[in-house]
Amino acid sequence: MEDISDVEIIAPNFKRRLSGVTTSIIQLVPVQRALGLKIATLGPGLPDSLPHIGYSALLNLWSRPKGRGLRVWHARRNVEMLPAIVLRDILRMKLKIVFTSASQRKHSGWSKFLIRRMDAVIATSSKTAAYLQVPSTTIMHGIDTQRFFPATDKAAAKVALGLPADRKIAGCFGRVRHQKGTDLFVDSMISLLPGRPDWIAIVAGRATGAHQSFETGLKDRVKAAGLADRILFVGEHTNIPDWYRALDLFIAPQRWEGFGLTPLEAMATKVPVVATDVGAFSELLMTGESETGVLISADSLAEMTDAAALFMDDPERTRAAGERGLTRAIDSFSIQGEASRIGAVYERLLGSI
Predict the structure, then answer these.
(1) Is this prediction's pTM over 0.85?
(2) For 42, how many CA atoms within 13 A lie in the half-sphere containing its CB?
(3) Contact at 8 Å (CB) between 274 and 311?
(4) Can you name the CATH fold of 154-332?
C-alpha cells in the first residue's frame, strides 16, 4: 500500500470486471512509474503488483503531496468522474481531474455534464475527439513492444503451441460474441480454407455467459463444413503474445469497437492485418503503398473474404505488410510514448497552481 503523501496521480478502477479500460490501467501504470510519475491505483480488480492506495487514503487528500500543491485524478469512466468532482468541488480537496474518452458515439446528457467539469480531457483517437464538445488532447493507446514482438522462428512458435509447423495460420483474437464479429471470421474461413489446403484458422478467446450459445453455433457450422480440424477454437490464454507470433494473418472482424488494440498487437509481431473500419482501426493501419493491412466495411462478409484472400494468395504482399506493420507499431504506438504524452497532460495540470 502506497503512502498517500508520496502519490501525485490517482488512477481509479471502479469496475471489478476485466475490460479494455482495466487492461489499459494494468499496462500503463508500471510504465508511468518507470518514467518517474508518482502514480497509484485505487479500486478492485487490479493485480497486487501495481502500486495501490486504499479508500481510506482519500480522507487525506486535503493534505498536499510531497513537493506539489495538487494531485491529479485520472478517470476513464463516468463512475470515476463523479466522486472526483465531489472531492474537488464539494469537499474542496486540491485535485485536478483528467478524463480519457474512448467512446465513438454521442454522449448522454449525464456524460456531457460530467465531462464539462473536467480539467483536461484525453481522446484515444480522432474519431473519439469528434464526439466531444470540449477541448481535448488526442493520445492514442500504445502497446508494450517488450511483450509483443516477432517470432525468430515462426515454425517453432507454432509447434510450441501444438499447431502444425507446415501450415499458415489466420487468427481472430478476443471475446467470442456477435459484437466482435467472430461469426464473420468463421464464415470467411469456411469459404476460403477448402481451396487453400496450406492454411488453417484459430479463434482465441472466451465466450462468456449469454454468448456461449453463439460460440456453440459457430462450432456447429464449422463441423457441418467438415473443417473442425482446420478452424480451431483454442479458448482464452494468458500467453496471448505467443499466439500472435504463430500467425501469418490477423483478422479483426469487429462490428463495433471503442478503440481496439488487437491490430496493433498483430502489427508488433510482424503480422499483416485485415480490419473492419470501426474503433481506431483506420488510424492504426496504413493502406496503399505503405500498406500494413486492409481496411474493410464493418459487417461485410464478402469484403472480409476478399481481403483475407489477398494475403493468403500473395506471400510477398504478406511479408511486406508485416514488415511495415512492425515498423509502424514500434515508431508510433509504443506504450512508453503513450505514457509520456499522458505525463505531459499531468505535468501541465500539476504546474497550474
Answers:
(1) yes
(2) 24
(3) yes
(4) Rossmann fold (3.40.50)
